Amino acid sequence: MKKIYNPQPETWSEICKRPTQTFSDVEETVKQIFKEVQQKGDKAIAKYASFFDGVTLENIQVTQEEIEMAKNEVTSELKEAIQLAKSNIEQFHAAQKSDKIVVETTIGVTCWQEKRPIQKVGLYIPGGTAPLFSTVLMLAVPAKLAGCQEIVLCSPPDKNGKINAAILYAADLCGVSKIYKVGGIQAIAGMTFGTETIPQVYKIFGPGNQFVTIAKQFASQNGVAIDMPAGPSELLVYADETAIPSFVASDLLSQAEHGKDSQVILVTTNKNILNDVEEEIYKQLKELPRQEIAQVAIQNSKLIFVETEKTALSLINEYGPEHFIVCSKNEDYFVDGIQNAGSIFIGNYTPESAGDYASGTNHTLPTNGYSKSYSGVNLDSFLKAMTFQKISNEGIQNIGKAIETMAEAEGLQAHKNAVTLRLK
């Protein structure tokens, strides 16, 4: 890992760069696949499944029989763990429900807001080197709580044309409507335009590699909403002398093993912690089955020493991490001061992987600095806030003159007339 001591603010933008390709690097590939899927539907889906996944499928939709077989393959222990996680996620997201808001702004003028579910949503579940069945819970549970009518799930098949059994079990448990063996850019394109088999959806959710991330951004240019630009995983840890180095190292490695384009960063005001964590990282790295992947991610990662907590917090807010762990005697300073982060983990005994699986918070979070302007997935992600108003005869008398005056000032006579007629 690269060690950086007392970086000057003018160098922070360079330090905060992620090891990902830019939109322009991938744009032509995404455009080509989107165009083919739009024009050729399932035929294009099959072509790219063969090209990227090395599999030819007669039917891309998962059958009920396949789901039942998958349920039998999942161990009782894993089923219990998934059910515990689902329960916690349900509790946390159900608590986010809000009541209808009703306000009489003026006598005779009543305005209110109600939330209604997005009818059709698409969930993208990565299934390559790490089949993320946990993401099914993070997306399908709030979708179901919100009342979405159709929940479509796409996940890439393995070389045998199958989706991971735990993904299918979790999807069935959470009430997913339809499941498709489609991955990558073509899955996002399929849900964007719809094909003979895959339904078109109104909003697409889920993390993925940089190709999926840019495909989602391209989908948003073609009439489909997306949750956020959620790309390769990243973690930033602030640790002082109260942190336990082996814990910090384990958290950094837990994100580094996600993918070669992941990034992890340690920021500290203690040089001993910096050195101890580095030593622990290399010790623990040797024991990881995904050592090769984590090793590449570690090369893209940084150990940063700064003199003061104020500088540390400023740098962290500039970076805007997806995941932010605070291990500090002054944790309140960082908890109160953090402005840009997807999800925050506080104290030595709060590993980031708790949020990934079972604490109850959502792990679908903004990456690449998008935490400066995006929230992570929550119940409201699956809802639309609709406003209503009802005005009585007395109400239009109370606000009519103001409407006439404003409409006339903007030169919109028909707007004025719509009120004038009612006032008469």
Automatic annotation (TrEMBL):
<keyword id="KW-0520">NAD</keyword>
<dbReference type="InterPro" id="IPR016161">
    <property type="entry name" value="Ald_DH/histidinol_DH"/>
</dbReference>
<keyword id="KW-0479">Metal-binding</keyword>
<dbReference type="InterPro" id="IPR001692">
    <property type="entry name" value="Histidinol_DH_CS"/>
</dbReference>
<feature type="binding site">
    <location>
        <position position="258"/>
    </location>
    <ligand>
        <name>Zn(2+)</name>
    </ligand>
</feature>
<dbReference type="GO" id="GO:0051287">
    <property type="term" value="F:NAD binding"/>
</dbReference>
<feature type="binding site">
    <location>
        <position position="258"/>
    </location>
    <ligand>
        <name>substrate</name>
    </ligand>
</feature>
<dbReference type="GO" id="GO:0004399">
    <property type="term" value="F:histidinol dehydrogenase activity"/>
</dbReference>
<feature type="binding site">
    <location>
        <position position="410"/>
    </location>
    <ligand>
        <name>substrate</name>
    </ligand>
</feature>
<feature type="binding site">
    <location>
        <position position="209"/>
    </location>
    <ligand>
        <name>NAD(+)</name>
    </ligand>
</feature>
<feature type="binding site">
    <location>
        <position position="186"/>
    </location>
    <ligand>
        <name>NAD(+)</name>
    </ligand>
</feature>
<feature type="binding site">
    <location>
        <position position="356"/>
    </location>
    <ligand>
        <name>Zn(2+)</name>
    </ligand>
</feature>
<dbReference type="InterPro" id="IPR012131">
    <property type="entry name" value="Hstdl_DH"/>
</dbReference>
<feature type="binding site">
    <location>
        <position position="356"/>
    </location>
    <ligand>
        <name>substrate</name>
    </ligand>
</feature>
<feature type="binding site">
    <location>
        <position position="255"/>
    </location>
    <ligand>
        <name>Zn(2+)</name>
    </ligand>
</feature>
<feature type="active site" description="Proton acceptor">
    <location>
        <position position="322"/>
    </location>
</feature>
<feature type="binding site">
    <location>
        <position position="415"/>
    </location>
    <ligand>
        <name>Zn(2+)</name>
    </ligand>
</feature>
<feature type="binding site">
    <location>
        <position position="415"/>
    </location>
    <ligand>
        <name>substrate</name>
    </ligand>
</feature>
<keyword id="KW-0862">Zinc</keyword>
<dbReference type="GO" id="GO:0008270">
    <property type="term" value="F:zinc ion binding"/>
</dbReference>
<feature type="active site" description="Proton acceptor">
    <location>
        <position position="323"/>
    </location>
</feature>
<feature type="binding site">
    <location>
        <position position="255"/>
    </location>
    <ligand>
        <name>substrate</name>
    </ligand>
</feature>
<comment type="similarity">
    <text>Belongs to the histidinol dehydrogenase family.</text>
</comment>
<keyword id="KW-0368">Histidine biosynthesis</keyword>
<protein>
    <recommendedName>
        <fullName>Histidinol dehydrogenase</fullName>
        <ecNumber>1.1.1.23</ecNumber>
    </recommendedName>
</protein>
<comment type="function">
    <text>Catalyzes the sequential NAD-dependent oxidations of L-histidinol to L-histidinaldehyde and then to L-histidine.</text>
</comment>
<comment type="pathway">
    <text>Amino-acid biosynthesis; L-histidine biosynthesis; L-histidine from 5-phospho-alpha-D-ribose 1-diphosphate: step 9/9.</text>
</comment>
<dbReference type="Pfam" id="PF00815">
    <property type="entry name" value="Histidinol_dh"/>
</dbReference>
<dbReference type="InterPro" id="IPR022695">
    <property type="entry name" value="Histidinol_DH_monofunct"/>
</dbReference>
<keyword id="KW-0028">Amino-acid biosynthesis</keyword>
<keyword id="KW-0560">Oxidoreductase</keyword>
<feature type="binding site">
    <location>
        <position position="124"/>
    </location>
    <ligand>
        <name>NAD(+)</name>
    </ligand>
</feature>
<feature type="binding site">
    <location>
        <position position="323"/>
    </location>
    <ligand>
        <name>substrate</name>
    </ligand>
</feature>
<feature type="binding site">
    <location>
        <position position="233"/>
    </location>
    <ligand>
        <name>substrate</name>
    </ligand>
</feature>
<dbReference type="GO" id="GO:0005829">
    <property type="term" value="C:cytosol"/>
</dbReference>
<dbReference type="GO" id="GO:0000105">
    <property type="term" value="P:L-histidine biosynthetic process"/>
</dbReference>
